[in-house]
Amino acid sequence: TAHAQTMDEMWESRSSGKEHANIQWFKDAKFGLFIHWGLYSHLGGEWKGKRYYGSGEWIMNQAKIPVREYEATAATFNPSRFNADEWAQLAKDAGIKYVVITAKHHEGFAMYDSKVSTFDIVDATPFKQDPMKLLADAVRKRGMHFGFYYSQFQDWHNPNGGKNTWDFDESKKDYQKYYRQKAIPQLKELMSNYGDLSIVWFDTPGGLSKEQTQQFIDSLRLLQPKSLFSSRVGHGLGDYRDYGDSEMPAMPINGAWESIYTHNDSWGYMKHDMNFKTPETIIRLLAEAASKGGNLMLNVGPDGSGRIPAYSAQFLRETGRWLQVNGESIYGTTQGLIPQQPWGVTTSKPGKQYLHVWTRPRSGKLLIPNANMQVQKVYALADGQPVKWHKRGDAIWIDLPITLSDAKNTVFVLEYAGEA
Ligand SMILES: C[C@@H]1O[C@@H](Oc2ccc([N+](=O)[O-])cc2)[C@@H](O)[C@H](O)[C@@H]1O
Q1: Which residue segment(s) compose the domain that 390 sits in?
Q2: Global confidence as pTM
Q3: What is the ipTM of this complex?
Q4: Which of 124, 155, 270, 387 could be 74's S-S partner, Cβ–Cβ 3.0 to 4.6 Å?
Q5: Which residue's CA lies nearest to atom 12 of ligand 1?
Q6: Member of which family (predicted)?
Q7: pLDDT tier for residue 17 given thresholds of 50, 70 and 90
């Protein structure tokens, strides 16, 4: 019986198919910064003194805020502390290779100078500047790739946009009209006026058939053929795959893919959410994604004044310090040849296995089972210190130093000859 192609099958077939000509930088990059910033950042998870839990960028939906009332909040949104160079330098110091920011999220508010709608940061707020222009330049000036997140279907401000069911009757909406009058013209603005976009990150597809989505993509590609489109453009037509929120695949996955994680428990800024992931957790998520052949895009949620939360800045800088020493074991690697072990994960380069050791076995000996590789030497990546090893059957045992030099993640390099 013909069954609906599962997402996995669709992407497996895709990954064996023709990849985008410009995909390799993305595969080598491994570490991206996601930025959710909008009017919701100004509210910080609160409405009329009531706190809302879940994700801050959904407050209009959670509190069922009428459009007119939500619109009015723009009049007091003035992120005067916003500093594009500061944000971009933080990303650089953190070892980030690409930055993707919300140009327009589900709330329908354009965080750039849009000529298509006056519900934007230049026309509707006292800020009067275009932060997307400033950030795009500051990021690319520091050699990182830049891209936009655009909520192509959900738009709670536009009467024909998706999913505002508390102001408008969803069944009466003309989604085509919304795409024609807002989504497509705004995407064309973003892909024409902000320089090279390495990534266009879509979300929650809807309102378009597979054929219409292909036409939608083709019309945008004309503006920037090198841009990579994320999988949430829908119908399996993206250039790389994104997993669900804060989801990591259970096993190595072929083809280009990305895991996206919040830094605390919210994408948009939430005053009361301090559950920030430690540098250790961030570094281990990055190594785990790389060990399975993919990327980690970690999110930050700046507040309404334009500041990135202190914990995010501090923990990103600490991650950057680890990457200063160990970047070779992440950037440009491919999935590990040794499956995840109790002690950690591995990543690969020709003739090398990078052993990412998170937990030192009580015995002080690291077991690599079913390893029929011709080991030549093993040493600590940080200082090149050789470590002893021996082979017993098809197992390799490595004598670890008394203490791991970095409890977050200590990397040893196993060099081998010939095929693994
Ligand atoms: C990155 C996030 O993306 C979406 O949320 C989703 C979309 C799709 C899935 N999914 O496919 O599992 C999960 C959450 C947005 O609704 C959310 O606000 C945030 O921007």
Answers
A1: 336-417
A2: 0.96
A3: 0.98
A4: 124
A5: 244
A6: Belongs to the glycosyl hydrolase 29 family.
A7: low
